[in-house]
Design goal:
Blueprint (H helix, E strand, L loop, with lengths): L2 H14 L1 E5 L5 E4 L15 E4 L4 E11 L10 H4 L5 H4 L4 E6 L10 E10 L4 H4 L3 E3 L2 E3 L44
Parallel strand pairs: 1-5
Antiparallel strand pairs: 1-2, 2-3, 4-6, 5-6, 7-8
């Protein structure tokens, strides 16, 4: 996958699946757009509306990258690519919970739990723009017209025709009296 395909995939996932943050009372809220590369858990957010009518789909374990001897700073761009494609079809929101925010400083990642939700998005959240590296996107990025379809790991194991395989190698002893290779 090229860098452009990766960027397109990340931006398009950000249009579909929105982050949630909880207030002190545990009420989940959608937030105004932040750069996908910013640490979204540890910053002040402007609420875009309470997350009502969402149903949890599944909670999965993921890894959040960290730098040496630094506390984890999860970014939306770290989370979105780890959503399995089979759950991406119905997921509309996610909430992240770090398992251990006080690391020894020697690990390259920290475990986290990602809870995916399905349900309707409020209009103001559904129509939010996406920001990546300071650039604003007002709509998902379409695939180029001549692009090959993206690799889908979910169907990669299904063959549509027989695959030719080389014959198995056979090793035999040299007949008596034959020398050399």
């Amino acid at each position: 996958m090229s860098q452009q395909d990766s960027l397109r995939s990340l931006v398009n996932r950000a249009f579909k699946v929105k982050p949630l943050v909880a207030d002190r009372d545990g009420v989940n809220f959608f937030v105004e757009p932040v750069d996908l590369n910013d640490s979204y858990l540890f910053r002040e957010h402007e609420a875009a509306g309470e997350a009502k009518g969402l149903t949890p789909i599944k909670t999965i374990d993921i890894e959040i990258p960290t730098n040496l001897r630094e506390l984890p700073r999860p970014r939306i761009s770290d989370v979105l690519p780890q959503i399995p494609s089979e759950l991406l079809a119905e997921a509309t929101a996610f909430k992240l919970k770090l398992q251990d925010a006080t690391l020894s400083g020697e690990d390259i990642s920290v475990p986290a739990q990602l809870t995916l939700f399905k349900g309707p998005l409020p209009e103001n959240v559904k129509n939010q723009h996406v920001i990546l590296r300071g650039k604003r996107f007002d709509a998902p990025i379409p695939a180029p017209p001549d692009a090959e379809p993206e690799f889908d790991a979910a169907i990669a194991g299904h063959l549509t025709k027989p695959v030719a395989a080389p014959r198995t190698a056979v090793f035999r002893q040299k007949p008596p009296g034959v020398t050399g290779n």
